Amino acid sequence: MPAPGNNVVGVPHPSPSPLIEGPRSTLAPGGRGGAVALVIGGQFCTQFGAAVATSLFPLVGVAGAVTLRLGFAALVLLAVARPSPRDRTPADWVLVAAFGAVLAAMNLLFYNALDRMPLGAAVTIEFLGPLALSVLTGRRVLSWLWAALALGGVTLLGRDGFAWITVTGTLFALGAATMWACYIVLSRGTGARFNGLAGLALAMSAGAVASLPFGILDAGATLLRPGSLVLGGLVAALSSLLPYSFELISLRAVHPATFAVLLSLSPAVAATAGMMLLGQPLSLVALAAVALVVTASAGAIWASRPRE
Fold first, then answer.
1. Is residue 87 a contact partner of residue 132, using CB atoms and an 8 Å limit?
2. Which among 107, 106, 123, 150 is positioned nearest to 273, based on CA atoms?
3. Nearest CA to 81 among 3, 5, 18?
C-alpha cells in the first residue's frame, strides 16, 4: 500500500500494509518492470499462503490458523521495527487496538469463508470492500458504473461460476470485505501517527492477542505442535512477510495508483492458486466473473486517483 501522504483513495490490499516511508525515486531491482514483477509476485505469495492455510484448518481449526499467522508475523515485525512505547498518546493506543481488532476480524472472517468456498470466489467477494470504498470516496459518476460492473461479476458467482459456494461462506466473505475497507482507513491513520513499520508491528501484535483466545478454544495445545508451528510459520511468511518486503521495494518505483491497479489482479491470482494447489475448477462463467471484478476494481481505483 502507498506510503503515508501518497495514498490513493481506497487502495486495496489483501494483507496489512507495510506503511512505508521513502522516496519513489529509489527504483526496485530491474526498474519499474522489476517493481511490477514484485507486486505480482507478492500477490502470488499471498494467495498461495491462503491455499497453504487450508491445510492448517484440519490441524488447528480456522481460529488456530489465524492465531499462528498473526503471531509469527507480529514476532518478526516487532524484531524488525522495534517500536518504542514512549511518547505515545492514548489516541495512538486506541488506534493501534482498533487496527489490531480489525486485522484479527478480517483474517478470522476470510479464513472462515475459505473453509466454506473456493479461494478464488472468497477473494473475489472480499474485494468488494476496497472497491466499495473507492467508489464511495471517488465521488464520480464513472465510479458507480464500475461498481455496477463488479456487481455483475459477483452475481455470476452465484450462477455456478464456482462450485461449492454456500450462503454462510458468502456472508463470511462479505464480512471480510467490510473489515478490509476498515483496514484501509485505519492503516492510513496508523501510517500518519507512526513511522515506518512501528504502527503495523504494534497493531499486528494486538491482532495476535485478540485472536489468541479463539485459537486456544479451537486448537488448544495443538497450536504448539511442531507440525502446526511449521505450517503456521510458512503461512505467515507467504501471506504477510514476503508480500510486505516485495511491496516495500516496489512502491519506491511505481506510482501508488499503478500499484493499486496491479493489486486489482488479486481475484484472478487467487483463482489460479486455487486451481493449481487446491484442485478447484474454473468454469467459463467463473473466468468471466473474475474478469468483471478485476476490470471493475482497476477502473474504479484508477478513476479515483488524485490528479497530479
1. no
2. 123
3. 18
